[in-house]
Amino acid sequence: MASTTIPTLDFARFREGSALERQTFSEQLLAGFVRYGFVKVVNHGIEDHMIQGIFDQSKEFFEMPERLKLKAEHPPRPDPHRGWSRVGKEKLAGITGFQKGVRNPKIVDDAKESFDIGSNQDPLFPNIWPDEEDLPVFKDFTSSYFEQCHEVHMGILRCIELALHLTEGRLESLCCANHTELRLTHYPEIDVGSLRGGKRNRITEHTDFGTITLLWQDSTGGLEVEDPLAPGVYIPVETKHKSEMVVNIGDTLQRWTNDTLCSVNHRVTIPVSMRDHDRGMLPARTSIAFFGKANRDASLRCLSEFSRDRPPRFDEDVTALEYNQRMVEKTY
């Protein structure tokens, strides 16, 4: 196990700082992404009461009886990627190692359930909501949180543009349609022993396939990031408070930047505090993830700015929607 930790950065230095502070923050953000693929960010602009509120709404949803959650059930097909997915429905092992060229990964069950939403203005994939009488404020609150996450997503992209010396708006313009997703995830209480046989995990290792992911998690632990400099070595990513935001690079930015920024394998498994236990129950875990994504018609071919000094590794002219569907189909 690696002894290192991913860096924590203060986004207020970009949001409220001078031109020099904005540049310095952006360069530190870039350095963290280049080294780890992940950083933690504080003072990101979403207030604590909103973060606590989304955890409360998540708890209320997942504590509902199954018959009520079934009213918002995810369709049997991969799209629309909306609504409630019961424990075991999604298998992220289907994309394990995809960026490394693995095409027939070992299938491992994921011990989690989730609820996915997109923009309420999305004409292609409408949201699937629980009944308002069952959860009166759920739709309005999660929709508001979704929109705030989109603003943070745009802000992080502006930082990356600045650090990479790109024209202002270069990345933002490719993501402005808000074809993104917010996911609430509940990991039920589970016996440690059931995660040791290699057939089950809370989430098996995978990369995200959007631009960047914004993640909030409780204090249960278990999130780990593969060290890019030491393949097979995983770094625990723990947060001191729910307001800390974990940010990671997705496949889309790896493709656009020709490996300047790389998506990194991560997983949710047995927390460090219980690593030496052969038995015992892991407590339930909750996380909130916002998956930033490109406009659906945007090409994921390497951007011209990153192919001047070396040949592009990602020269396939696939759209963001085509790539997204390609990956989702491997998980359902």
Keywords:
332 residues, alpha+beta, eight-stranded mixed sheet, 25% helix
Description:
This protein has 332 residues and is an alpha+beta fold. The chain is 25% helix and 19% strand. Strands 1-2-13-10-16-6-5-3 form an eight-stranded mixed beta sheet. Helix 2 (19-36) packs across helix 5 and helix 3 crosses helix 5 (138-163). The radius of gyration is 19 Å and the shape is globular. The mean pLDDT is 92.
Q: Topology of this structure?
A:
Blueprint: E1 8-10, H1 12-15, H2 19-36, E2 38-42, H3 48-62, H4 66-69, E3 83-85, E4 109-110, E5 113-117, H5 138-163, E6 181-187, E7 190-191, E8 200-201, E9 203-206, E10 212-217, E11 223-226, E12 234-236, E13 245-249, H6 251-256, E14 266-268, E15 281-282, E16 285-291, H7 320-328
Parallel strand pairs: 1-2, 4-8
Antiparallel strand pairs: 2-13, 3-5, 5-6, 6-16, 7-15, 9-14, 10-13, 10-16, 11-12, 11-14
Helix pairs in contact: 2-5, 3-5
